[in-house]
C-alpha cells in the first residue's frame, strides 16, 4: 500500500487557493480512478483505490497546513508503512506555474505543510511538486497573498489540464517511475 497525501487547507473558502493544489491533485486522482467515497479518519479525509497493481490510500489532512504531519504520521502508523510508501502533493513557489516535478527528500522552501511532515518523519519522502510560480525577485511581500490567493480565471484551463495529466499518468507514479511520470505529463501539456 502507498499513502498519497494532498496538502491544502480545509474549508470552501480555501478551495481555489494556489496553496490547495495538493488537495486538487488528490481530488482528481480520486475522481478519475474511481476511489472509494471520502471518509473521516486520522484527522483527515481518506479514500482507497487502485492504480494498476498498487493499492493507494489518498489522504487530505483536515488540520490546516501547519499541522499536516500529525495526520500523516497517524495514517502511516496505523497501516504500518514507512516514509518510502509516502508521496506528498504540494504547491511549489520555485517552479513555473503548472510544471510538475518529483523528487525524494530536499528542502522545505518555507512550506508549512512540508515542515510539519518533516518534523514528524524526517525529510526522506517523495514529493510531487506542483509549480505555482513566484511573484518575482524582491517581491517577498507578495508571496503570502500569491500563495493564499485564488487561481485567476485565465489560469483555470491550464490548471485543469495539468490536474487531468497528473491523474492520467498517476499509474507511473504508483510504479515508482518518477521520470516517466514527469515526462508523460510534460508531453500531455505540450499537446494542449
TrEMBL record:
EC number: 3.1.1.29
Active site: 19 (proton acceptor)
Site annotation Stabilizes the basic form of H active site to accept a proton: residues: 91
Catalytic activity: an N-acyl-L-alpha-aminoacyl-tRNA + H2O = an N-acyl-L-amino acid + a tRNA + H(+)
Signal peptide: none
Binding annotation for tRNA: 14, 64, 66, 112
Pfam families per UniProt: Pept_tRNA_hydro
GO molecular function terms listed in the Swiss-Prot or TrEMBL record: peptidyl-tRNA hydrolase activity
Keyword Signal: no
Record SUPFAM superfamilies: Peptidyl-tRNA hydrolase-like (SSF53178)
Similarity field: Belongs to the PTH family.
Described function: Catalyzes the release of premature peptidyl moieties from peptidyl-tRNA molecules trapped in stalled 50S ribosomal subunits, and thus maintains levels of free tRNAs and 50S ribosomes.
Protein's name according to its UniProt entry: Peptidyl-tRNA hydrolase
Higher taxonomy: Bacteria, Pseudomonadati, Pseudomonadota, Alphaproteobacteria, Sphingomonadales
Amino acid at each position: 500500500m502507498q499513502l498519497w497525501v494532498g496538502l491544502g487547507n480545509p474549508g470552501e473558502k480555501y478551495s481555489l487557493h494556489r496553496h490547495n493544489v495538493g488537495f486538487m491533485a488528490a481530488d482528481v486522482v480520486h475522481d478519475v480512478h474511481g476511489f472509494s467515497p471520502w471518509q473521516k479518519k486520522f484527522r483527515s479525509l481518506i479514500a482507497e483505490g487502485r492504480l494498476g497493481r498498487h493499492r493507494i490510500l489518498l489522504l487530505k489532512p483536515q488540520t490546516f497546513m501547519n499541522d499536516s504531519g500529525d495526520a500523516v504520521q497517524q495514517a502511516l502508523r496505523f497501516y504500518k508503512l514507512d516514509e518510502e510508501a509516502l508521496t506528498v502533493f504540494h504547491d511549489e513557489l520555485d517552479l513555473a506555474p503548472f510544471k510538475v516535478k518529483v523528487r525524494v527528500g530536499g528542502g522545505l522552501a518555507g512550506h508549512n505543510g512540508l515542515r510539519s511532515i518533516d518534523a514528524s518523519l524526517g525529510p526522506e519522502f517523495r514529493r510531487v511538486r506542483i509549480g505555482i510560480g513566484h511573484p518575482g525577485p524582491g517581491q517577498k511581500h507578495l508571496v503570502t497573498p500569491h500563495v493564499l490567493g485564488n487561481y485567476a480565471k485565465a489560469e483555470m484551463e491550464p490548471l485543469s489540464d495539468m490536474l487531468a495529466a497528473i491523474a492520467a499518468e498517476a499509474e507511473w507514479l504508483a510504479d515508482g517511475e518518477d521520470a516517466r511520470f514527469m515526462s508523460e505529463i510534460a508531453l500531455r501539456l505540450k499537446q494542449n
